Amino acid sequence: MKLSSIFGLFTDLRFAIQVTTIPALKVIFREPSLLLHPRELSRLFMAKLWERFGYFVDTNCRPSKEALITPNAHGVVLDLGAGHGHTVNYLDHSRVSKYIALEPNALMHEHIRKTANTAGYTEVAGSFAILSCGAEDIPTIIRETGRHGVDTIVSVLTLCSVPDPALTIHNLVEEILRPGGNFLFYEHVRSPLKDVIWWQNFWTPIWSTFFDGCVLGRDTVKYISDAGQWSLKDAVGKADEDPENLFWHQAGKYVKAADEEPQSVLI
Ligand SMILES: C[S@@+](CC[C@H](N)C(=O)[O-])C[C@H]1O[C@@H](n2cnc3c(N)ncnc32)[C@H](O)[C@@H]1O
What we know:
seven-stranded mixed sheet; 20% strand; binds S-adenosylmethionine; Rossmann fold; 8 helices
């Protein structure tokens, strides 16, 4: 494996430390009790980080998101780990009746509200809601959506951070997504190359400390694939991605089988 691939993530790591340290220290100085709450501290770092990274990451993934989300999101859309709500900008308003942004980090909520309102989705009109739980908190999600009340689930660079991803994805598909609904994802996942997987596992403890628990080499596509009965499975890589990239991306559309539908596997 090339040295540039092995150590490629250090540019991002250095930038992350640079942009988060001073603003986070200022907040900790005002609120020293945060030091006793590592989860809150990690969310503070992630919020500061996303203020600097969010726009660039969105720009970088735009072609994949336009191809995946715009034509396939419809009805009630649940956006897992909404961040600053960038997903809402890819929704076709004539096909999406409600945008539900699930984001456990409350420091992001103001950004989400602003982005959704600008895109024409508002709480007053009932076309927008924020859920401040994690994707694993199925009872809270059901209270907002009802059982099988969501037509589309979108996950962009979030399933790398959820606890127990296999179980979380299974429950979301089983309990939240309506039969015939779409599960759309754009995620960095486990590489198909053994030596790259080794380095993904090696760097994860350091990387996840700065990036809110993000695991580099999760087998997310397999977890989604195994999560339920699908009538369509369609996953593709990112155009021109270096096979040695530690952040190996897959974009996919999986359609939940309606009860009596036969299963067909495209990819
Ligand atoms: C890398 S950011 C991606 C944000 C957004 N999806 C985007 O692409 O711009 C990951 C997001 O997942 C959120 N997150 C972390 N743990 C989560 C969980 N258990 N359930 C749902 N979201 C979570 C983080 O707060 C963060 O906003």
